[in-house]
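Figure 2 data, in text form.
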Amino acid sequence: MAFEGLSSRLQDITRKLRGKARITESDLKEVLREVKLALLEADVNYKIVKDFIKVIEEKALGQDVLKSLTPGQQVVKIVKDELVALLGGEESKINFTPNPPTIIMLVGLQGSGKTTTAGKLANIIRKQGKKPLLVACDVYRPAAIKQLQVVGKQLDIPVFSNETEKNVSSIARQAISYAISKLNDVVIIDTAGRLQIDEALMQELKDLKRDVKPHEILLVVDSMTGQDAVNIAKTFNEELGIDGLVLTKLDGDTRGGAALSVKKITGRPIKYIATGEKLNDIEAFYPERMASRILGMGDVLSIIEKAEETFDMEEAAKLEKKMRKQGFDLDDYLTQLRQMKKMGSFSSILKLIPGMNKLKDIKVDDKEFVKIEAIICSMTQEERRNPKILNGSRRLRIAKGSGTTVEQINKFMKSFEMTQKMMKDMTSNKGAMKRMMKNMNLDQLDDVDISKFKDLK
């Protein structure tokens, strides 16, 4: 995953800081040296690292910090604030025109993931109540048009193409007229890439920009290319003028330096990040949330937003009623499991929870949840509603039907009984959860004693 190495190093450093009752100037210099090395190893631009460390040092050496009761935590806060600033400060949204259609032009090198990103972007924009149209303007790469059409069909989003026309400006103008006639209020143009930046590529993009006057030009960059991604962004911005970036492949084995360098180098914000291969694996880029993730402080807001997008409110209301009547059964468990899967992998969700970065012993294997689904689906309706009837012969039959063992079924049923008990306790003591949430200080979760959680493995 992106930032994994950097995140691990910075979390170790900040953990040491939090534990110190007093910090001397030499302590601080040693810590900043470690931060500097961590950033350089993550492929962050050297000049940016140098400036970053200088700012932190100036702020952290203030007497108010060194003489405070919690100097370690104050320094951690300074590191986080500067990391947020480095990543862009605030979220940068797409500027939708009041006179539709809003025209978004995607540019970038071949292999950066433009075509898939076009679909992902259309999907996330549609969730905002817009009606997007995808436009195939890559007339060079074999099957590029077909690929966009397949993506559009999967998402049920219309795609405009003209395979007899080779002039991309002409195709784009036709698409805009088509969008107006069909009341599409957003037009996303997928342009051709090249294996490297060349004069012909830039000239075609400049001509397209001149002819269709896009409201947003977004550069799609493969974050796995490291420092090259920053150089590409700088060149595109100087030659074409971009409004923002979409970083792709942040789920890959990347050190994350591009994300930490690109805003400072280009002056242009990261607007979206792609975090997987699925067409819903894209999210708006929030500098503060990303800084919290990197430093192991979690990202509760992203969990809430994912849940709001995924969970069916009617189903949630029905489940609440059942829980109040203490009737939570295996069908309900299966429904919740499937809705959770829509949010992404369980391991990726865990990383967003404050404090979970410290639970090194927890190993989440998403394949285990596939087995659980198979076990429940191999049960009869009666067995799902009343698991108490699951005797030895029934468990043997379910094991054969689900491709598991009786031992695995016994283990799951024990886990389910614990879940039922927890649900029962929550509903019988309505004020307990509210009190727990009220007393929870999310900023301090990274300092909790986690020894009691070791059995979660």
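Caption note: The chain has three domains: 4-87, 102-297, 303-456.
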